[in-house]
Structure to design on (124 residues):
């Protein structure tokens, strides 16, 4: 009965914890599903980052009890998360550049092989 006096209903706490767990399990499955999709460019990475940010908010809010804290801690968490996401977004163009470089190298290699095959056939 002490828990109810403090404003914490054990059944509600269990229900909330199970709902957060189910949401985290669903988001993890979504992340794995996105990894198997053939999304163009860095779209898969962006979707995975959004899902990861959602999971971070759920974990920090419920399991680390941030939702019960004051505004200052909530703002600090939000600013930190925003800054990390901005830093990650600055790295995303690198992912696309590497994919374009790989395609360029593959086409150059294919052209070189075709050229040397033609030279070899002409020489015999």
């Amino acid at each position: 009965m002490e828990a109810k006096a403090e404003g914490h209903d054990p059944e509600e706490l269990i229900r909330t914890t199970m709902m957060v767990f189910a949401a985290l399990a669903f988001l993890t499955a979504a992340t794995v599903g996105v990894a198997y999709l053939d999304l163009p460019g860095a779209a898969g990475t962006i979707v995975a980052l959004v899902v990861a940010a959602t999971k971070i908010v759920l974990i920090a809010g419920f399991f680390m009890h941030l939702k019960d804290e004051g505004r200052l801690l909530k703002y600090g968490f939000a600013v930190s998360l925003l800054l990390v996401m901005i830093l990650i977004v600055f790295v995303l163009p690198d992912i696309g550049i590497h994919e374009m470089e790989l395609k360029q190298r593959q086409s150059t290699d294919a052209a070189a092989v075709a050229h040397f095959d033609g030279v070899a056939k002409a020489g015999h």
